[in-house]
Model the fold of this input.
Amino acid sequence: MRKIVVKGALITGALLLAGSAMAADLKAPGPMLMKAPPMPVMTWTGCYLDAGGGYGMSNQDHSITTTAGAVTPETTNGGRGWLGRFGAGCDYQVSSSWVIGAFGDYDWMDLKGSMATLTTSGGLATEGDQKETSPGSAI
Done:
């Protein structure tokens, strides 16, 4: 009797294992529906840093009109040089439509140039230099 019980248990265990192996190969009757993760909430709250750099160029086209109506020929002068900037700020989103914040930035540069006209009606030449070095702002 003992042998029959042991054989029966072995056969039952083998059938259970074979049944689960066969079930793994079966396909679901329809597409599997998965719940999408929730979308992240967008916010403008936070602090930031920014920086930049480049090369600057400017041109000036000018001429002189005297009181007697004489006009000097138009001349073009300008400046060239390197520039950079750094900024920082913080914002806080009060509601879905309003953001408050503060920021500041600082620019440094070495833009240099000169200007010179030919001659005025009195025979005198005008000449000058230009230089811009460090504008900045804070709001």
The mean pLDDT is 76. The longest helix spans residues 2-24. DSSP finds one helix and six strands in the chain. The two ends are 95 Å apart (CA to CA).
